[in-house]
UniProtKB/TrEMBL annotation, chains A, B:
Domain HTH tetR-type, residue spans: 18-78
Gene3D superfamilies the UniProt entry points to: Homeodomain-like, Tetracycline Repressor, domain 2
Protein name per Swiss-Prot or TrEMBL: TetR/AcrR family transcriptional regulator
Species of provenance: Streptomyces orinoci
Keyword DNA-binding: yes
Superkingdom per UniProt: Bacteria
SUPFAM superfamilies from the UniProt entry: Homeodomain-like (SSF46689), Tetracyclin repressor-like, C-terminal domain (SSF48498)
Ranges annotated as DNA-binding: 41-60
Keywords on record: DNA-binding, Transcription, Transcription regulation
Lineage: Bacteria, Bacillati, Actinomycetota, Actinomycetes, Kitasatosporales
Length: 209, 209
DNA sequence: CGATTAACGAAACTGGAGTCCCATTATGGG
DNA sequence: CCCATAATGGGACTCCAGTTTCGTTAATCG
């Protein structure tokens, strides 16, 4: 007897268990990108992953909880950051990276699906927020360097500048049918850079005109 | 005999049919705001609307298609626009309106759900895009006025400026756990205004540093 | 390498989402 | 005002997503 509350996969996480997780997460990503978040069933994912559907239901239970785990996995795969020496150059590099990701049919659909899933459950939302916190933190240093160079005023919220680059790209992805091209990426970077230079992202201060 | 392909509700759209639609759309909004897009069933909506579930299935069939109709309805309800005489003032008014809407528990949840639904079906996405096109068009004139006043350079994409105000607010709603407060709204408006003045939204031109 | 038992997987089972049928209601045209 | 029939609504039915059961496989510890 004794406490038998340990979730499956936590006591013997090696070998098969890890293999099953990797296989299921890959299959889940494929399925989300293909069918979207709504018409998705776990049995189909189990089939793709060549895993018993009982296992998928036992370890994840619901689509949203599976997506939460997928986000945990995605957060670990970090993309290399380039440095160009100027704020605009760095922000453009970031914007292009986001734009290429969202414009890619598979990745774009996957991100849409993941965002949709996050609106449906608190745990999944938390995982999504953590994912973006990590990505934002990775790029924030380039804004700090711009502050050090005197390009951007002291006291600027560096994270907010990075978010300002992504925001219009995600907004376009979700609310319009316009194509996400490089011009959109460059425009997002330029707008964020211009606003940052003008002091629009000073923290704790609503800025002056 | 003859063509009997007419969808239910199109031949006799008055009286009861209209009443049923209004009641179902209201119930759908409530349900979406409460349960989110995922765990939503049409039978529950029918119960809330005091309508037979057969009717809901016959006229809308799926959750996404019901959301598409809800968006059509939402698009018709236009909000009054205020004018302040300056670009920053107008953009702040817009930002505050969006912020108040998204920060409201019911409305915020509803918008999240509607966006999630739009990621799952082309027809619903189209309805969502139309909804935002209308909202953006309603506010665009204030940017044109700023151009006429010489506040913003000629050739600026007026719609893009309006989108730039909403984008960071929606981005925050979906990807972070931070509260959507008035400071966020003001910051979004100021950033958009600063970027617009700097010429970041010149159309067909990627701007200069 | 062998024992223990965590984790997996096949198959049978179940509940409720979505469909079908037909009687009832009430719209819109004459 | 009346008729033809569009549209609704209750209830029976179906089918499959999700659960339960139990035998099999393999991870970890000694």
């Amino acid at each position: 007897m004794g406490a038998e509350g340990a979730d499956p996969g936590t006591v013997r996480p090696g070998g098969r268990t890890a293999r099953v997780r990797a296989s299921v997460l890959r299959a889940a990503g494929d399925a989300l990108a293909e069918h979207g978040f709504a018409h998705l069933d776990l049995a189909d994912i189990a089939r793709r992953a060549e895993v018993g559907k009982t296992t998928v239901y036992r370890r994840w239970g619901t689509v949203t909880s599976l997506v939460a785990d997928l986000l945990l996995d995605m957060a670990e795969q970090s993309l290399p950051r380039t440095e160009t020496g100027s704020l605009l150059g760095d922000l453009k590099a970031n914007a292009r990276l986001v734009q290429r990701t969202l414009a890619d049919p598979r990745q774009g659909a996957l991100f849409k699906a993941v965002i949709a899933a996050a609106t449906c459950e608190a745990r999944t939302a938390e995982a999504l927020h953590r994912f973006y916190d990590i990505r934002v933190k990775e790029w924030a240093p380039c804004v700090q360097q711009a502050i050090d160079r005197g390009e951007v005023p002291e006291g600027t919220d560096v994270h907010e500048v990075i978010r300002a680059v992504s925001a219009p790209l995600y907004y376009r992805l979700l609310t319009s049918s316009d194509r996400l091209d490089e011009a959109a990426a460059d425009q997002a970077a330029e707008a964020a850079a211009a606003a940052a230079r003008a002091g629009a992202y000073l923290r704790g201060d609503e800025g002056r005109a």
